[in-house]
Amino acid sequence: MIYKCETNSPIIFDRFDQGDIKSAEVGLLRASLPTLGEGMVGGMSLRSKRAAVCGEPAAASCASTLSVSSLVAASPSKSAATNGTSVSIKSVAVAVPKKHGPYVVDKGHMITWIDAMRSQSPPQFRSLHGEAPETFDIETAAYSAWLEKHPSALSSFDKVVKLAKSKQIVVFLDYDGTLSPIVDNPDRALMSDEMRATVKELATCFPTAIISGRARPKVYDFVQLSELYYAGSHGMDIMGPAKSSSGFKVNGTRVKDKKGNDVVFFQPASEYLPMMDKVCSVLNDTIRTIKDARVEHNKYCLTVHFRLVKEELWETLATKVQNVLKDYPMLSLTHGRKVLEVRPSIAWDKGKAVNYLLNSLGFADSSDVLPVYIGDDRTDEDAFKLLNGMKHGCSILVSSIPKSTKAALSLREPSEVMEFLRRLVQWKKRGSEKRNGVQNGRYFIN
Ligand SMILES: O=P(O)(O)OC[C@H]1O[C@H](O[C@H]2O[C@H](CO)[C@@H](O)[C@H](O)[C@H]2O)[C@H](O)[C@@H](O)[C@@H]1O
């Protein structure tokens, strides 16, 4: 067994030791809080972006230096060397919390990520809002430099499908910021009808799952496609297939879905539910005085939203959240796009959920499968990391600004995600037509 704690971020809250895990071959044990903002390269300020353009350390701080070819076609030994992580998708980590240290965040660390959040807001090109053209050029140049490390999945599309040859593509999609644009009101993060139609078609071509930080029923309400698998609460609430091929025993509660298929519910943090309810109500009481602060109950995860709160109140809000957590050492704090998230301290994350779903879909032999994961947030990094450690994997970050990421490829925004998914569908359909003897609308003889 190999356990690895990430050390590429300035602040690490490591709440686990080896005694916390009963059975794990993939041991990414992480609860880190480097920046609370939308994660530009280390919360990079304009000054450090200038450095990035000049090739100075800010640019080098990107965690991933993987090229497209090394990402999508790495050999197991190379992956292990690259990541220091041993991955076998035959076993799924079962996390049992045992020991917990006190929850401590020092003020210096908190200010670091509050500053980071200030320095990069809003995330889009600020010149559009009246900043000097020079700033715009610097940002464009910084993005171009970053793009060399994380090329567009659209321009790399041929490489992706070349690798998919004679493999089963399985698609994993994050929701917010990937399928729907980021908006102020989390209840209005709607997916467009076009995107829904695209994902629906995608699911007819490849097994497709949504892996979201939201509560599973909530993300289902947004997506409304019964043909997908869903993992909510950052993977802690999975509804997946009950298939148990390749010797993999699918853990969970078996039920029939609406179509009569056997499905399994897997909730590795189920015992935390009463605690999450309690902490949600304490948090709501505590933050009530802060205008526009809001707590979203995502079942096994509580999301505290900063987006609409005045920046001068962010530190107060963060301190209030941290103070609540002092009484709950079984819970951890992580961050996302202008949110802090409270979650059970178990070694389970989006990467583990992807691993679980791949196994339960019958892809215990990773040479037969090309998992494609598309996400925009810090929590998606756990899934990128899993894919990097597999024989084949295609990890794609959605971002229009340079961000530190383990993803090999990138897409700017949800509209590009939709274009990429459409191309996958077209590629799959063209392949089927060829196999059926139809090419360019005409029959041909082999
Ligand atoms: O894993 P995801 O599906 O990406 O969910 C992560 C969080 O997404 C939502 O928050 C984010 O999107 C909101 C709506 O666009 C935005 O207002 C917020 O600032 C973003 O952080 C969701 O509301 C959270 O519950 C999810 O945990």
TrEMBL record:
Q: Which UniProt keywords apply?
A: Hydrolase
Q: What does this protein do?
A: Removes the phosphate from trehalose 6-phosphate to produce free trehalose.
Record-given protein name: Trehalose 6-phosphate phosphatase
Reading the lineage from the top rank, the first entry is: Eukaryota
Q: Which gene encodes it?
A: LOC112280199
- Requisite cofactors: a divalent metal cation
Q: In which pathway does it act?
A: Glycan biosynthesis; trehalose biosynthesis
Which Pfam families does this UniProt record tie to the protein?
A: Trehalose_PPase
Q: Which reaction does it catalyse?
A: alpha,alpha-trehalose 6-phosphate + H2O = alpha,alpha-trehalose + phosphate
Source species of the chain: Physcomitrium patens (Spreading-leaved earth moss)
Q: Which residues form a coiled coil?
A: none
